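Appendix B. Worked example

We walk through a single record from start to finish. Start with the input: the chain for D-3-phosphoglycerate dehydrogenase, Thalassoglobus polymorphus, length 333.
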Amino acid sequence: MAMTVAKNVKCCALNSDEGPHFEILPKAGLDVHPGNRSANFWNADELVEELQGCCSVIAGSEPYTAQVLKQLPDLRVIARTGVGFDAIDLAACDELGVVVTTTPGVNHHSVAEHTIAMLMGLARGFPNQDQRVRTENWKRIARPRVMDRTLGLVGLGRIGQAVATRAAGLGMKVIACEPYPEMDFVDKWGIELLELDDLFATADYVSLHNPLTEKSRKMMNAETFSKMKQGSVLINTARGALVDEEALVNALNSGHLSAAGLDVFDVEPLPVESPLTKMSNVMLSGHVAGLDIESQRDTLTMAAETIIALKNGEWPQMCIQNLSGVKDWSWDR
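Next comes the structure step. The output line below is what the pipeline stores for this chain.
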């Protein structure tokens, strides 16, 4: 006989079979269910099936479209692990009264380490170095040293700042484009602030750490790639839709860009037929930059605590990304 779950207490944790939320949520009367690992949550029908009867979901980067949301009448909260929420239709959530939350301030060190790992790997010729050894193509190529090279950061928020301090430790010069800079940090670390075109023309490595907006969508395109230094490198651990991938492939094939490191993509998972998967000067990872043991623990804790706060009638504004101005939201609707 199937177990009956009380209404408004079922929470689904789609991408985590274990963690602190499995202890935190039940103490508040919420029943936590791990997601089905065999399901494809990028498929709308499978996502809807998985979330039937759920009042809340601890979500990853799977898409919550209006089509999906309208089939989930019990859903109260989408608690996104991390800070990105562009896969969620906020307008539909506003209409349906679904609160969208994120977990700010818990994964910036993880993203920064991943960014530097990609930078260093590409600087030393990976993944091509690894692939050549595996095929007995022993070839030694001298490459420019990272120290004294210039890193251009597009965005100097928590993540950009965490990358900046690590890059400074490597002896890199750090420049940045940031509309609202924290000048104490800028002055302390000797960061030069530039307009975007000047940053592109100056940086040996360009790393994206800005949000996705309608203005920034496809900001890295044929025109902007042409403004980057000959032989420079693009790293994107922010949002996939910031980059026009076709234009990036062209810039890499022409040699204008020497390499790219990508953790996020316009379509996720990245289709295997993408030209990016065939390029030996491109380092790929599957939207995992913000994921390490510490950030996983902290983001799941914050997501669970945010759900409980909403259930208890609180409004943790720092974590909420929609329903601006709403004062009468209720868990029991």
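Two observations about the output. The chain is about 35% helix and 15% strand. The radius of gyration is 22 Å.
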